[in-house]
Amino acid sequence: MAADNRIEELLRRPLYVYDLPQELLTSIALKGEDQQPVAIKDDSELVPQTPPVEAQEHAIATSASCALCNVSFASVQDQREHVRSDHHKYNVRAQLRGNAVLDEIQFTKAIGELDESISGSESSEEEDQDGGDQLTTLLKRQARISQAAEEGQTSTPKSTGKHPLLWFSNPALPPNTSLGVYRALFTNAEQDEPRYLADSLAKKQLTPIYAQNNNGQPQTPSPHIFMCMIGGGHFAAMLVSLAPEIHRKQGGIEERQARVIAHKTFHRYTTRRKQGGSQSANDASKGAAHSAGSSLRRYNEVTLEKEVRELLQDWRQQINDAQLLLVRAAGSTNRRILFGQHEGQVLKQNDPRLRGFPFSTRRATQNELMRCFKELTRVKISQVDEAALAAAEGKQQETSKPSTPKPQPRKPKLSKEEEAAIMHTTQIQALIRRSKIPALTAYLTKNEIPSSFTFQPSDVQQNFRCPTPLHLASNLDAPAMVLALLAKVDANPTTTNGEGRTPFELAGDRATRDAFRVARHELGESKWDWEAAKVPPAISKAESDARSQRERQAAEEEETNRRKAEMDRLRQEEAEAASRVTKKGGRTLGAGITSVEKSAQEKREEEMRGMAPEMRMRLERERRARAAEERIRRMQQGQN
């Protein structure tokens, strides 16, 4: 019983691929292709399994899914991001137009032929402006392919790619539970030997690293990966360690975090707004334009290419030592920047470590890279009764054998109360996702919606996991919304969802968990049964803010120490290189290389390399001010 409780407790918290508990690694085995929780369609195409209606009574999956795109998710947050992705938008429009929908592998292959990424923005409004035309282009192209296929001229290519997830089982787990790991985390050699994938997963485990906050010394090197995205003028790159980093908090609490070795982002105006595509692609198809905007975009394309390639050359050693290279570069222009042949080329197309992101991504930002890293390295947990699914599928096949189709039973008509509840559910969920706290409180008050309101219909997977507004806000990691619901709306924190979890247990970060503790302090111990709600002891808002401030200062100090140590290392390397060169009459002894003094511009660029954009601007303003003062001083001396 104790072992079962231990396994259940492990499955409740996020599992990291490179730091799995020993209980799960023991006797872990790869599930056969015919036993994976996915459905096999024609041409061996693998898509996530959507439970039949007959099996839903016996098999309720804790992960969300999209039946239209045939994609499953580990959380409602992932499903929400998928709904805003290009993949889902394309399939919605394709279905409305009567075209065939694409799975994730087919869609990734289709957009790879476009010049730029479909959406280059995080906001839905900018996505519609920047990517709408290209999304329409892709729809039209797919329609032409479908029409040609009907006329016998060509056929739509079918995807032969493998499913991005590998599923593992363990005798200690419940029979309906499987653990999913992204295939991209395994090398090509490991994937060629499926029998040893479980052993390979066990060998990938890494010892956590304890954070060093005081001495400023470089941390111990550890296995790391390189991630970068480029599209629509946005570029983001990151070197991140695979070994988790442990930070000691107050009270001796240890918290695991990802350790970013280095990161950099660039943005240049290169995309033709409201028209889509890069300037170079437009020039290639229609000829060179002569407007001021086109000239600026051409200049920015060249500048972006120069900045990206210089950064890759600076990171050459770390990239060469990386275990995996995850790159998203849609369009020929972006691929040429990264993989085009040039002096000092770092990334190569034939590198066996090269991977694409096995899921939909958004605009290239540092936050998006970190989200992708967490998504990539987090173990997926599927709880689907496969026996019930197989029985239901066999029953469905038997009933579909007669040639005469049976009339589909009509769905029962909803009452006015049920329709109102569904409408309120849609409105409330939208306000919570957009963090509209005043609008949410006003909506609840105006419509006289009680604090005990639950989302409808209750049999939807999203509402199964997050049945109340407080569950949804906690699952979305929205601390301000959580505090508002508890303090202003009088939401009940003891309500449990279909999995038996309270809202606090769905919180994914410390800020959201602290919001519950602050509410406990403000509302008092007698307001709710906080122990039943699983909320830890109360803390005040001032204590929470002070701790957050201390952590920010510690992070800034750690970053400053890291930069100082890196600059000291670079200066030491330059001094050692200079000491090896002995000048004599403009020549070097031994090496035979002429020593050339660096120009002022080169020195400035070298000093600013690695600095944040704000620091570069501040340093440049100071230099210009000093130069102006020097000119004024010389003019005054000349007059005297």
Low-confidence parts: 38-63, 115-133, 148-160, 584-595
Main beta sheet: strand number and arrangement?
5 strands, mixed
Range of strand content: 5-15%
Fraction of residues in helix: 40-55%
Name the strands of the widest sheet in spatial order. 13-10-9-14-15
Q: How many strand elements?
A: 18
The structure class reads: alpha+beta
Rg, Cα atoms, Å: 28 Å
> Taking all residues together, what is the mean pLDDT?
76
Total helices: the number is 23
Q: In angstroms, what separates the terminal alpha carbons?
A: 95 Å
Give a structural overview.
- With 640 residues, this protein is α+β, with helices and mostly antiparallel strands.
- 45% of the residues lie in helices and 11% in strands.
- The protein has 23 helices and 18 strands.
- Residues 38-63, 115-133, 148-160 and 584-595 have low confidence and may be disordered.
